[in-house]
Each structure stands twice: as structure tokens, then as C-alpha cells.
Specification:
12% strand; D-Maltodextrin-Binding Protein, domain 2; 18 helices; four-stranded mixed beta sheet; 434 residues; six-stranded mixed beta sheet; 2 domains
């Protein structure tokens, strides 16, 4: 079977708003009554697991499913979805969405409630189930949840008699010691800490963790007030800027999730901030660091209001309002988010389930032991200010990650650039966007 990048699909849709024979090449399953298309990520093992679940549904129902891949970067993915849906194209039936997108794309998503059995959302974390509802409507189905974690080389910490860091100060100290030792031993490519520094949604997630862990808030409060311009937030960003070129590579300013994973999994970093999906890949038989790393909560800051703070993430499956097959598309989304599929994804890909029962499943915990502490991390996780900003979230996030990237690049200090970003967010909110 073949897959088609979603960028190509959008370009074709711009010329004609219907599937052609050339776009139907590469389907899953036998000839059938209907052909559906699912847009799912190619990040890590996601492509294979998405294809396997779709194949199982196709075999069960006699329909066919085609897989297309949007860009891995969330901001680019959202832009492509917006273009496709604004054209009211039926090209994509089921879409993988970031948890913060239903509020942005809701007008273009099918209300799944009339197309699914009662109780479909039973068994998920209540907060996760609530996040896909809009009044009585169900805009998506929870697929997996996410909270960022700290990956660390357990072998190297043990070798140097170092503990897993509790604070950012601890992380900096350990990273400096091990980085110096590894380079002295001949590995000039070794770095203390890799993360996501590219100017995109992932940087908003990283920055939210730094700031919240120092007691600096969440950029925009639950009441819509703009809170990012404060000393704790500035201190957090200035700290992170100090990592660039010292404990983190200069190229960190272009890193997304897979860039950081490539460095860590090759054995060239002590610490990594990333999502749970990277665990299964790091423990795969061909991984140079298999059996030599572990996972812990992200460090906290040092002030009186310091805390461990992980950005709440995750993905849903939604159905386009323009699908030609609403009942089938809804059933495909239901199948792919079922307990059985989530269990397999947790075991094979370390994707965190949205169903509490799976955190007590012996096979899941054997495959990904760190999932035992993830529910506690999820309870304390920090949500991005998507609910309060609604359709303006993407613009607000772009203001945030643009400011953060400027600080990391050395173009401004934290306090000055946050003051400027405060004004930009105020202007956006005064425009009636939230």
C-alpha cells in the first residue's frame, strides 16, 4: 500500500474538489462498497499503527481505507487542514487532531453523536471525554493522551553517581558534568539536553512547561486575562536561552520532536524532553540506547511557587463535515479509538491511552513501565489556553512561540520580548477574538 502526503492532497484539492482515480491508488483492504481516507501522523510508529488499525476495520467491514500523512509539525498540519476544510472538500474523511483543535475547526467537523452508539465516550478519562464535547455534540473521539516527560540516560547518571534531576538546576549541573566527560572521552557530538526549539506549536508546549514550572502562569489565564509578562516567565525563558550552544546544540532552534529523538536515540544526549511515543522507539531492538534509559517527570523550578509542569497534549480522531460517508467514517473513528486498539498502541508504540483501565493492564505496563506514573502527571498537567481563546488560539500561540524563539535566539531578553508579546496578545483580544 502507498501513502500520500497531505500537502499534495491539498494542492490537488485546490484544483478540483473531488477525488480522481490518481488519488485512490494505494488502499487498504479488498474491493468494497466505499473507500475512506484517514489523515494520520507519520511521527515515529504512528503510520504503521494507524495503518494496522485501519486494515483491521477494513477487513471487518469490507470497505477500503487510504492513509495520507500531514506534516509532523502541528502548526503546518493545522494550516493544511484549514485550507482543505475551508474548501469543503470531501477528500479526507477522518482527521487526526491535536487536542486543542476542535475549538478551531469545530464548524467543519461532523457531530458524531447521531452516528455512534450511546455510551461511546464511556471508559475514557472524564476530562478527556469532556474535551471532545460541545454542548450535546461530539466533535471527535479521544485517541491517545500526552504529557511531556524527561528521558534520561540511566547508565550515564549511574556511572557518574548522579540522581535523576528534580529541578532545572539539577538538570543543568548533571548535563554539564556528563557532557564534559563524554566529550573528553572522544564524543564531540554529545550534548546535555535536547528538546524542541523550532518556532512552532511544540515550542509553545516547551515554553509553557518552563514558565509554569517557575510559577509564571500559562500565558493566558482561564478568564482570558493575559499573564505572560511577569518576572518568573522572563526568568524561565532567559534560563532556556542559556542552554543554546552550551548544554544544547546551536541547531536546537530548528528541532522538532523527531530531531530531538534522533540525537537522544543515537546516544548523543543525556536528557531529552519529549512525548511518550519516543519510549517504544528508544527501546526497539535496533536502538543504540535500548535498556540504557528511563523516563521521569519534567523538572520543577526553584522558586516558592515552583512545580513539576508538563504540557497536556494528545490526539483525537474527528470526521470531516464534508465526508460522503458519515456513518462509515464515524464507525472507523470509533473502531480506531476503541479499548482494544488503544491497548495495542500502548504496547507497540507507548502511546498513552485515554482509558484509565489500560493503566492497570499488565501487558501495557510491561511494555511501557513509565505509564504507571503518567496518570499522576496527567492530573497535574498544564493545559494550553485553547479553551478560552477558541478560534484565535493558533494566532495567540504563534505570538507566544515567536517571542520565545526570539529570546532563545539571543535577539531579546525575556522581560523585553514578553512585554512586546503582551501587547500583541492584547491587540488580538481587543479585536474581539476572545
Amino acid at each position: 500500500m502507498t501513502t500520500i502526503p497531505l500537502q499534495d492532497r491539498v494542492r490537488r484539492t485546490a484544483r478540483r474538489l473531488a477525488l480522481t482515480a490518481g488519488l485512490i491508488a494505494g488502499t487498504i483492504g479488498p474491493a468494497a462498497a466505499a473507500n475512506l481516507t484517514v489523515a494520520c501522523s507519520a511521527l515515529g510508529t504512528e503510520s504503521d499503527l494507524c495503518r494496522e488499525a485501519a486494515q483491521a476495520w477494513a477487513d471487518e467491514t469490507g470497505n477500503t481505507v487510504e492513509i495520507v500523512h500531514p506534516p509532523n509539525a502541528a502548526s503546518e498540519q493545522l494550516a493544511l487542514y484549514q485550507q482543505l476544510l475551508a474548501a469543503e472538500s470531501p477528500d479526507i474523511d477522518v482527521l487526526q487532531l491535536d487536542v486543542v483543535w476542535p475549538g478551531i475547526l469545530g464548524d467543519h467537523l461532523l457531530d458524531l453523536a447521531p452516528h455512534l452508539p450511546d455510551g461511546t465516550l464511556d471508559g475514557h478519562f472524564p476530562a478527556t471525554a469532556d474535551s471532545v464535547r460541545s454542548g450535546d455534540a461530539i466533535l471527535a473521539l479521544p485517541w491517545f493522551t500526552d504529557a511531556a516527560v524527561l528521558y534520561y540516560r540511566s547508565d550515564l547518571l549511574a556511572e557518574h553517581g548522579l540522581d535523576v534531576p528534580e529541578t532545572w538546576d539539577d538538570l543543568e549541573a548533571a548535563a554539564a558534568v556528563v557532557q564534559a566527560a563524554e566529550r573528553a572521552a572522544g564524543n564531540d557530538r554529545f550534548w546535555g539536553f535536547v528538546w524542541q526549539g523550532r518556532a512552532y506549536e511544540g515550542l509553545t508546549c516547551n515554553a509553557l512547561e518552563w514558565v509554569a514550572s517557575e510559577g509564571g502562569g500559562t500565558f493566558i489565564g482561564p478568564d482570558g486575562s493575559i499573564t505572560l509578562d511577569n518576572p518568573a516567565a522572563a526568568r524561565a525563558l532567559d534560563r532556556a536561552a542559556g542552554w543554546v550552544g552550551t548544554l544544547s546544540p546551536p541547531g536546537i532552534l530548528t528541532y522538532a520532536e523527531e530531531d530531538a529523538r534522533a540525537v537522544f536515540q543515537s546516544g548523543d544526549a543525556l536528557f531529552m524532553r519529549n512525548w511518550p511515543y519516543a519510549y517504544a522507539l528508544g527501546q526497539s531492538p535496533d536502538s543504540p540506547i535500548a535498556g540504557s534509559f528511563d523516563v521521569a517527570p519534567l523538572p520543577r523550578g526553584a522558586g516558592p511557587e515552583a512545580r513539576h509542569a508538563a504540557t497536556l497534549g494528545g490526539q483525537h480522531l474527528a470526521v470531516s463535515a464534508y465526508t460522503r460517508h458519515p456513518d462509515l467514517a464515524a464507525d472507523l473513528a470509533r473502531f480506531m479509538t476503541s479499548e482494544a486498539v488503544q491497548r495495542e498502541r500502548a504496547i507497540a508504540g507507548s502511546f498513552a491511552p485515554t482509558r484509565p483501565a489500560l493503566y492497570e493492564d499488565a501487558a501495557v505496563l510491561e511494555a511501557a513501565p513509565f505509564l504507571a506514573f503518567l496518570p499522576a502527571t496527567l492530573r497535574e498537567a498544564v493545559a494550553r489556553p485553547a479553551a478560552v481563546t477558541g478560534t484565535a488560539y493558533n494566532e495567540a500561540s504563534a505570538i507566544v512561540y515567536g517571542a520565545v524563539h526570539d529570546v532563545l535566539s539571543g535577539n531579546a531578553d525575556g522581560a523585553a520580548r514578553l512585554a512586546e508579546a503582551h501587547g500583541d496578545l492584547m491587540q488580538l483580544s481587543r479585536g474581539g477574538r476572545w
